[in-house]
Specification:
The complex is a heterodimer of chains A (about 150) and B (about 450). With about 150 residues, chain A is of the alpha+beta class. Chain A has four helices and six strands, in the order H-H-E-H-E-E-E-E-E-H. Chain A has a single domain, classed as Ribosomal protein L14/L23 (Ribosomal Protein L14). In chain A, strands 1-6-4-3-2 form a five-stranded mixed sheet. In chain A, a hairpin with a 2-residue loop joins strand 3 and strand 4. Chain B has about 450 residues and is α+β, with helices and mostly antiparallel strands. Chain B has a domain of about 130 residues: SH3 type barrels (Roll). In chain B, about 40% of the residues lie in helices and about 10% in strands. In chain B, the strands form two sheets. In chain B, strands 4-3-2-1-5 form a five-stranded antiparallel sheet, with no helix packed on it. Chain B has a two-stranded parallel ribbon with strand order 6-7. Chain B is elongated. The chains are: A alpha+beta (about 150), B alpha+beta (about 450). Chain B: It is found in: Mitochondrion.
């Protein structure tokens, strides 16, 4: 029974391999406040910056809201591969409103300064209430493949 | 220790039908009889524990298992609040068929979503939890889409829900399947295009005795601990017997015998479910409900409940929530005022410029785009081009202002022509001839 524990610690070092292992590397402590500084996030678009493996998971270093808590639709600043990049939150583990989806991982889409997405496709389902913020993130919604 | 507990459980189940007095007598007997009795092997052990409060829970009626949100929690609130809520729940259930389902059943829920394409949002998933009481009753559906686990907590009595369909009706070994979050993804994956499976012929709901394999620890909760009482996990694959024993440290076996935690709902259930059945069987007569009430329960239909459910949420709402007479009066009043003002303005303009050609191009100006109008005007007017341009510009400005200043992109022109307009107006106030001179 020590073997699964060993494998668990080993997979903790590897990032960006199979999806099942990726699920296990992220924080499993109870969710207190959706996304804040130092949360490890999962980049869900197909940009090279988000998908190339690195020995450190992408972390949030700043949340562009009044309080430091980021929910779906908020912009954050990530530290990926030793560089700073802005991103948009498209799903978090914290349960939100009733009737709105809750994801099993904190999902994030890389974004430029002007709001254009870095990648060209988002495979993961996106919550539909993002459509309300049509003006800012219309391009992100355009590259999304499915909505939940 | 585990074996002892098991033995105790068996004993308790066998004693389910006995009354308190009988048990007490037996206990009296056991203390009077000396302990090292040779009869212990044949008869059940004489030491009988006090009646478990769980006994009462086990005699839960079928109706309460099916619809647990009708039974109010043990609180100090007035039962009138719960009876009011039940009335509303029954009214909603007459409109929307909420079928019987349990944790572990696979459901498909169609929800009205203003942000979704086609206004409807369909989600298929396995029900992992049924919570809440009264109108706030919820159920959580879980599914894995594109390797991403998604859970949605639906409010059962929310008017946004258009239909709840049970694709597979079954029970599991536990009431709460939250541990599926830490189980292998195959156990939470449900095909979104699944067809509804036919229910079993007998009235009983099939119990799926599947034991789920878990992902490696750490889990989001310590599912192995006795406080969750989970039967549906394969602990033998993920934990050693030594770990299982260690976990029993958190066991609280005295809680089963805590009589203060007893909540006997049998009589309450009988009352509630008989009332609910009566209400449901009553035909929903169309009656003139007050409009305020209609607006509050806006998902409730006043017409025949067998009417088909409409597709679009908006049309449904509009049909079901008619405009109140007060609002209707306001609408009509507003319309009347607009019409009257328009007529007055037209009359004023006509009196100011009685010239036929001017009237003709005024009527041609009804579309709001002033630039296009100017072109039309230029082509229509009979006067010299140079004068016509100037006058037509001012004329269009005036009429645009009269029609509510719809020429938004003419701000610069407005500023330039303000003085000209004033001059024109002053001149127009004189005789007809002067007006004709102005325009030609």
């Amino acid at each position: 029974m020590a073997l699964p524990q060993l494998s668990r610690s080993l997979t903790g070092l590897l990032v960006g391999t199979s999806s099942i292992i990726q699920q296990r590397t992220f924080g499993v402590s109870p969710v207190a406040a959706a996304i804040q500084k130092m949360t490890r996030v999962r980049v869900v678009d197909n940009s090279s910056l988000g998908n190339t493996p690195y020995h450190r998971a992408p972390r949030v270093i700043h949340v562009y809201t009044k309080n430091g808590v980021g929910k779906v639709g908020d912009r954050v600043l990530l530290a990926i591969k030793g560089q700073k990049k802005k991103a948009l939150i498209v799903g978090h583990k914290m349960p939100g409103e009733r009737m709105s989806p809750r994801f099993d991982s904190n999902n994030v889409v890389l974004i430029e300064e002007n709001g254009n997405p870095t990648g060209t496709r988002i495979k993961v389902p996106i919550p539909t209430h993002l459509r309300k913020l049509e003006g800012d993130f219309s391009k992100v919604l355009a590259i999304a493949s499915s909505f939940v | 220790m585990a074996a002892y507990a098991k033995g105790l459980d068996k004993l308790i189940f066998s004693l389910r039908s006995l009354r308190n007095l009988q048990l007490r007598n037996e206990r009296g007997l056991s203390t009077s009889v000396c302990r090292p009795s040779p009869r212990e092997d044949n008869d059940p052990p004489k030491f009988t524990p006090p009646p478990k409060p769980v006994v009462i829970d086990k005699t839960q009626t079928v109706a309460s298992m099916r619809n647990p949100e009708f039974i109010p929690p043990r609180q100090r609130t007035d039962p009138f609040k719960f009876s009011m809520e039940r009335k509303d729940m029954v009214r909603r259930r007459k409109v929307l068929n909420i079928p019987e389902f349990y944790a572990g059943s696979i459901l498909a829920v169609t929800m009205a979503d203003p942000n979704a394409s086609g206004k409807m949002n369909r989600f298929v998933g396995i029900c992992i939890q049924r919570g809440g009481k009264g109108l706030g009753a919820t159920f959580v559906l879980r599914n894995i889409i594109d390797n991403q686990g998604v859970e949605i907590c639906y409010e059962m009595y929310s008017p946004r829900i258009q239909s709840v369909e049970v694709l597979k009706l079954e029970k599991r070994l536990d009431d709460n399947l939250m541990y599926l979050r830490d189980a292998l993804p195959e156990y939470s994956t449900v095909d979104p295009d699944m067809k509804p499976e036919s229910c079993s012929t007998s009235g009983e709901v099939p119990v799926n005795k599947i034991k789920v394999r878990m992902l490696p620890k750490p889990w989001s909760k310590h599912w192995e601990r006795p406080r969750f009482g989970i039967q549906g996990i394969r602990f033998d694959l993920c934990m050693t017997p030594r770990q299982m024993e260690f976990v029993q440290k958190w066991a609280q076996p005295w809680q089963e015998y805590d009589m203060l935690k007893e909540y006997d709902t049998s009589r309450l259930e009988e009352q509630i479910f008989s009332e609910v059945q009566r209400e449901m069987s009553k035909n929903f007569l169309p009656h003139k409900v007050s409009k305020l009430n209609m607006r509050y329960f806006f998902a409730v239909k006043v017409t025949d409940p067998n009417e088909e459910q409409r597709r679009c949420c908006q049309t449904r709402m509009r049909s079901v929530c008619p405009v109140s007479p007060y609002r209707r009066c306001l609408h009509t009043a507003a319309a009347v005022i607009v019409i009257v003002s328009a007529v007055a303005i037209v009359a004023a303009v006509i009196t100011a410029t009685i010239d036929i050609t001017s009237v003709s191009y005024l009527f041609a100006l009804s579309p709001p785009n002033p630039r296009a109008d100017k072109k039309i005007v230029l082509s229509l007017s009979l006067s010299e081009r140079h004068n016509a341009n100037n006058t037509n510009f001012t004329g269009t400005e005036e009429t645009d202002m009269a029609w509510g200043g719809s020429g938004g992109d003419d701000d610069d022109d407005d500023d330039d022509d303000e003085y000209e307009e004033d001059e024109e107006e002053e001149e127009e106030n004189h005789s007809l001839l002067e007006i004709i001179c102005v325009y030609f």
